[in-house]
Design a protein that fits this description.
five-stranded mixed barrel, about 300 residues, alpha+beta
């Protein structure tokens, strides 16, 4: 029976499902088109800021991805040092009818912060919640759930046919160009200074256990530090603590941070250039528009064959 004839005489519940699928697809296509066009428009309209003078709030910045001091960021699959990574492990599984498909059995994504350097300054990038477009993507195959060889030796059509596991690894290498769109804020250096009263207490405790300092505070040399003399010592300690805090603030640069906006605006980290990313979003929006046209057309055709239109 032809599809048109089937739709005309199908039971109501079956016709409902046949018509619901293209309707849902059409709605999803419209939503996708809106999302891609919104990202495209934001990227085109947003001026590129420099970190040295970037305003607080939603900004667009471009620079180089760099590692922070401390432990390196390493992708678990290939032990590659990078600024960001994401991987997925899939297993070829059967459905009992002789058909096999790839099923995801493990995936993970890096949440370690790294630096973005635009030549005028640096900011710490928190990748949590970001839409990340990596520069490097490897796909290869193996006989075990953990790779026994790298992408260079594990790829190819033949290995895809004979191997039961597929590995996908995406990376943003260190020193690669990075485009970012997100929430920028600066934490002033003074905010990182240690608590004044805590430092004062520690310094006074240290002086109490230092006979030379206590002898210096004993101005009248009576062998004991009076309340008046101890108050003078306290003022001296407070001045010393404040001087150290000021020096620490001067020598410590402000901390710039880029993170996910709290107001729902896009958070994008892309290792491909902005112009290419804009073209990609344009094509994706056009594709969604085409998907909407096809889905909506099929939905209306089904209603017409049913005699509803």
């Amino acid at each position: 029976m032809a599809l048109a004839q089937y739709l005309a005489v199908a039971p109501a519940d079956e016709f409902f499902w046949w018509s619901a699928v293209p309707l849902v697809l059409a709605c999803a296509a419209v939503a996708g088109c809106f999302v891609f066009l919104r990202r495209k428009r934001l990227m085109e309209d947003m001026p590129t800021s420099v970190l040295r003078s970037a305003a607080q709030g939603f900004v667009e910045v471009e620079g180089i991805a760099r590692l922070m001091e401390g432990a390196p960021i390493i992708c678990p699959l290939t032990a590659t040092r990078c600024a960001w990574w994401r991987y997925q492990i899939e297993q070829k599984q059967g459905d009992g009818k002789g058909r096999k498909s790839w099923v995801t059995i493990a995936r993970a994504v890096s949440d370690d912060s790294f630096l973005l350097d635009d030549g005028t300054g640096e900011c710490v990038v928190d990748p949590t919640g970001a839409k990340v477009i990596p520069a490097v993507r490897h796909v290869w195959y193996g006989h075990h759930s953990r790779p026994d060889r790298g992408p260079g030796q594990g790829g190819g059509f033949w290995r895809a046919m004979v191997c039961d596991y597929r590995f996908t690894e995406e990376l943003i290498p260190s020193a690669s160009p990075l485009y970012a769109l997100g929430a920028f804020r600066t934490q002033a250096a003074l905010a990182h200074a240690a608590d004044e009263q805590l430092d004062l207490k520690e310094l006074l405790t240290k002086w109490k256990h230092d006979p030379k300092m206590m002898a210096m505070f004993d101005v009248d040399k009576d062998g004991a530090v009076s309340l008046k003399e101890w108050e003078a010592a306290r003022r001296m300690a407070l001045n010393k603590v404040r001087e150290e805090h000021i020096e620490r603030a001067v020598n410590t640069p402000d901390l710039h941070l880029l993170a996910r906006p709290r107001d729902g605006r896009p958070y994008i980290l892309s290792a491909i250039p902005q112009a290419e990313l804009v073209r990609r979003y344009t094509f994706q929006a056009v594709g969604c528009l085409g998907g909407f046209a096809l889905s909506a057309g099929f939905f209306l055709w089904g209603l017409s064959e049913r005699g509803i239109l």
